Amino acid sequence: MNKTSVDESVPPDLPALKDKLRELLRYASVSRLRSHTGAAEVEARELGCGFSPGRILASNMVFILVSGDALRLTFKVHFNTGAARNLAFGIFGGNSPADISERLSIDYFKEYANLVAGSIVTLLAENGVELGISLPLSTRGFYEVFSDYAEKQRPIITYCDFWELRANGHDIHCSTLFEILNPRQLGHLAAYEISEETGNDDAEMDFL
Amino acid sequence: MSHINLDLQASHKMLMLLDEANTNTESVLDSIPGIFLIVNENHEVLRANLEFVKLLGIDSEDILRLPLSKLFRKESWKIFAHNIKQIVESETAGASIRFEMGLATGNDAGHGERIFHWTLTGRSTKNQGEGRLITVFGDDISEMRETERRLLRVFTSIPLGIFTMDKDGTIGDSYSSYLESLLDCGKLAGTVVDDVLFKPALASMTPDEIGGIGAIRQCVGKSVLGYGAFSRTFPQEIFHNTQTDSKHGRWLKITYQPIVFDRIVEQLLIILEDRTAIVNAEREMLDAALDREKAVALEKQSLARYEEAIRDPLTGLYTRLYMKDAVAALLWSHDHHEISELSMAIFDIDHFKNVNDSHGHKNGDRVLREVAGVILGQSPEIPIRFGGEEFLVFIPDRHEAAFCLAERVRREVEAMRIDLGGAVIQVTISAGIATHRQGETLDDFMHRADQRLYLAKNNGRNQTMPGPENQPGEARLFDATFPE
Fold first, then answer.
1. Listed residue (B422, B33, B395, B8) closest to A135, CA to CA
2. A130–B2 CB contact, under 8 Å
3. For a tag site, which of A9, A61, A116, B195 has the least CB within 10 Å?
4. Whether B130 contacts chain A with CB within 8 A
5. Interface residue ranges in chain A relative to chain B, Cβ cutoff 8 Å
6. By the CB < 8 Å criterion, does B157 face chain A?
């Protein structure tokens, strides 16, 4: 993996940077779900027009923090236990999805959040952006109501993204709160193109 | 390892603790008894406890965004939604509304409805996606209400009037449908107790009882310590009559029970018992007892008069009046073989007219009493003064027994000396004996005895003449064998 040095003298194209970060997160979520579920196809979709940030998307939620000097990402996976059991059943096996305990199904998505976060860390590390990953935390989907998705430009650039994924006929939702702490360190990301090689990168992550 | 990684490592430990704490907190929320919900301002369920999921019998997956309106009947939901709107629109933080409402737990909203006591509380949390949040607590009070209904049915079915009197002297709660009937008043709530209970009874109340009416109202609102002094003057039983005719009135026994809060008599529980039937029954029993006493007195009086009528006041013997009743029974018994023999002796004092003429009627009466005393001394069955100086004796025995009795009387009279205050006289008596023949009338029976008496008189008096069945020789035989 080649690491790129960051040129902070280039003024950032913020809209392009925001879109690129969205793209990276969505890409990571799709690619990791494909590998985590073994699904041949994972479809990413926009949420319905009736959606507003803060709306509860599912009965359960796992979130993980990806944090560095330049960027902070709060990635959330919103899922219902039924979908989680079915997707986990594809990996863990057993007699039926009903035999998958709620605990195990939650752990399954904690691991998924880890994979997505790890993927992002890898992608950004290639671009010279150092990030760390927290432990994934699970809670009821209800607590989404306490999230603050208001877009801000200062002191920290804050924005969000919401999308839906479908794998093996089961839907889950993802959301990310982006907090850009130092745009100049990220300015070069706007031109970054994800290669096929990068997409298949299942390299070992440095989980802490 | 960079300082970032070290920081994250420390944070990981904290997150693990938070994760565990969160799991425990969620478990506590799931276990909240009754119904616990968090709903948004569009009435969608966002969070529910396990009891709610169990109550509805649906999958926990289906709880999120369950429309709350589905749980209520249309009319109930209008009220529930209105209350939620009140909370959402309230500017007061933590605004709360409490109310009771049925929850349709079955498929059919009209059936299986259970009464809950609801508490809606507004949360300060509000976001673009869900709007204002409301917590909903529901306590199932259907069993409590059912118990209340059963108790109320008991109250309303017993023949008592039960109600509470408030501080202002009006009827608060009525616990008996019988009360309206008792007080002959259709609308009781808010009515002044004095007007409906005591006013129609004033006519039959004593001044002390009327004074006690005021004490009933005065004791409410005062310390329970002084209640005893008030209660002693309360009217205990009244004749309640709303009609002009007294037969429509009711006797009401009144019981008072103070309802005390913080040592103050807040209300009076008043219990009315209709004692009309009991009072009427007691009166009827009293009247019956008086009637019985009168009847007994009348019977005694009648008996005394009868006794007077059948007893000769001079001699103490029975009169002819009694003879007809008593001897008729004897004759019937003999005719029907209940007694084997029936005999009679008829006595007549010899030359009694001379006694009257010589010594006066008063002394004549004295002689009659003395002779009667001799007859009574023989304890015959039925001794009778037949008239004047003539006496009869009936005995349920053979001719010989009658003859012997007559002879004992005759001899005793003969031996008797009567002091008439200056003159001592001796009298004799004659007697005739007859034995009853079955089917024979009293007159015929007496006639035959009288014939024997006549023979005794003609034969020289002071003797007993046996019946014709007994020859003169036999008469002598009796005479000869008569014990001294």
1. B8
2. yes
3. A9
4. yes
5. 51-56, 58-59, 67-69, 80-82, 130, 132-135, 137-142, 144-147, 149, 208
6. no
- The number of beta carbons lying within 10 Å of the beta carbon of residue B337 is 8
Dist CA B157 CA B15 (whole Å): 65
Residues A117-139 pLDDT 10s: 999 999 999 889 999 898 899 99
Q: Which two tokens stand for residue A39?
A: 């699904």
Angle at A134 between CA A129 and CA A104, to 5 degrees: 130
Is the preceding peptide bond at A155 cis, omega within 30 degrees of 0?
Answer: yes
- Per-residue pLDDT tens over the stretch B390-446: 999 999 999 999 999 999 999 999 999 998 888 899 999 999 999 999 999 999 999
| CB B116, CB B151: distance < 8 Å | no
CB neighbour class for B38 (10 Å; exposed up to 12, middle 13-18, buried from 19): buried
With a threshold of 0.85, tell me whether the complex ipTM lies above it.
Answer: no
Q: DSSP for A11-57, please give it.
A: PP-HHHHHHHHHHHHHHHHHHHHHHHH--S-EEEEPPPTT--TT---
Which residues of chain B have a pLDDT value below 70?
1-5, 8, 106-112, 469-484
Domains of chain A: 11-191 (3.40.1550.10)
Rg value, chain A, Cα? 17
Beta bridge partner(s), residue B311: B318
CB–CB contact B127 A54 (8 Å)? yes
Full-model pTM: 0.57
Helix (H) or strand (E) holding B281: helix B276-310
pLDDT digits (tens, 9 = 90+) for B184-223: 877 788 889 999 999 999 988 999 999 999 999 999 999 9
- Catalytic center residues of B: 389
Cα B168 to chain center, whole Å?
37
Would you state the structure tokens that stand for residue B425, as one six-digit string?
């006289």
